[in-house]
Specification:
single chain; mainly alpha; Methane Monooxygenase Hydroxylase, Chain G, domain 1; 2 domains; elongated
Length: about 240
């Protein structure tokens, strides 16, 4: 019976449907009708689902476009704010430069000394952090920078008298003469840490180069001496 009904469904597409009534009973025609109506409803459901998905995609696309518009507006607003800040910074910088021109040499020396003192006060903590993280080259740079400030800029290590016009400025910061004592002992710690790190055969190449550079800078070693130290540590 099923084979007969399926064959009859294929005949539905023919112009002459009277053959169904000629070749099938009423019960068979009712079954065929139900099956055809079921397929029609299924096609309708498929069409609704397809249209719904397309409509949902359209809504999502519209929401995305709206979000893009909002984000673009925020970006343009941020760029505008940056431009305004740059203009304001340029104006304040020009004003600051104009005011610095009128500063006396004593004021310039005072602010320069205050800035260098601030660097020296913060250097020990930075060197400690670098040593804790095994960043020996960074610690070396901080040490040498402090040494340059003390020995070349402030002349604390030199016994030459200070210029008479800045004696009162140096007298205002007696801590400067003691700050180098808190920094100078780091040289030994950095050298020991760098030399000890050379014994680690799993040390990355970058860290190895940093340790070698630290030894070369602090001990004023030649490349031959540095590599000799490396070979001795790796024995």
């Amino acid at each position: 019976l099923l084979l007969k009904i399926n064959a009859s469904l294929n005949m539905v597409s023919l112009p002459d449907v009277r053959l169904l009534f000629q070749t099938h009973s009423i019960e068979e025609i009712n079954v065929i009708e139900k099956k055809i109506r079921g397929e029609i409803e299924k096609k309708k459901d498929d069409l609704r689902i397809m249209v719904g998905e397309r409509y949902r995609d359209l809504i999502n696309a519209a929401d995305t476009i709206k979000d893009m518009e909002s984000e673009s507006s925020q970006v343009f607003g941020g760029i505008k704010n940056i431009q305004n800040l740059c203009l304001s910074f340029h104006t304040s910088l020009m004003s600051s430069c104009s005011s610095k021109i009128t500063q006396s040499p004593r004021d310039v020396a005072f602010y320069s000394l205050a800035t260098q003192m601030d660097l020296l006060v913060n250097t020990p903590e930075k060197i400690w952090n670098a040593l804790d993280n095994h960043e020996y080259l960074n610690a070396t740079q901080l040490y040498m920078f402090s040494h340059h400030i003390v020995n070349k800029s402030l002349n604390i290590l030199v016994n030459d008298p200070k210029p008479s016009n800045s004696q009162d400025v140096y007298a205002s910061f007696p801590v400067l003469h003691h700050q180098w004592a808190a920094i100078s002992h780091f040289k030994t710690s950095i050298l020991k840490g760098a030399e000890y790190s050379l014994k680690d055969k799993t040390l990355p190449d970058k860290k190895l180069c940093e340790s070698l550079c630290s030894l070369a800078l602090l001990d004023n070693c030649s490349p031959r001496q540095v590599f000799a130290t490396l070979l001795l540590a790796r024995k």
